[in-house]
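Why should sequence recovery work at all? Because a backbone constrains its sequence more than one might expect. Tight turns favour small or flexible residues, buried strands favour hydrophobic ones, and helices have their own preferences. The token representation captures these environments compactly. In the example below, the structure is given first.
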């Protein structure tokens, strides 16, 4: 099982959830875990993680992301919508009689939009469910 680790600084932490600021590097463009990172300004990204250690702002931490989780998230974000789009195109070409291309495309895009709405609704319901978050695995207190 592949595990990606990254170092960062705690921006804030409360209720077992921390926001970590990770410096942007040359490797960010090729990183498959960038699905988890939220772009901040041009030189930093933030990451929301589980905080089992009760860190405080300014702590340097090591964050771990399970590789299979990244694959699963990638499939949810890219794979399933692609399947719905292609299915919509194929089904639309068989059920529409005139302007097949336009209506098939609209049907496929409609299926993708419905999928996105369902996923968004499910994520809103599970917003406080932190098992899917990356996790802090090591804490180094800041040097004063």
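From this structural description, the recovered sequence reads:
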């Amino acid at each position: 099982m592949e595990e990606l680790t990254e170092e960062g600084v705690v921006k804030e932490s409360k209720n077992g959830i921390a926001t970590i600021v990770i410096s942007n590097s040359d490797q960010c463009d090729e990183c498959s875990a960038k699905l988890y990172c939220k772009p901040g300004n041009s030189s930093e990204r933030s990451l929301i993680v589980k905080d089992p250690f009760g860190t405080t702002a300014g702590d340097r931490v090591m964050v771990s992301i399970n590789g299979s989780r990244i694959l699963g998230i990638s499939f949810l974000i890219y794979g399933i919508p692609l399947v719905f789009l292609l299915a919509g195109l194929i089904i639309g070409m068989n059920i529409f009689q005139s302007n097949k291309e336009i209506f098939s495309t609209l049907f496929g895009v409609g299926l993708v939009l419905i999928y996105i709405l369902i996923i968004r609704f499910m994520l809103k319901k599970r917003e406080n469910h932190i098992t899917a978050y990356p996790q802090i695995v090591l804490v180094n207190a800041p040097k004063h």
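A few observations help interpret the result. The chain has a mean pLDDT of 81.
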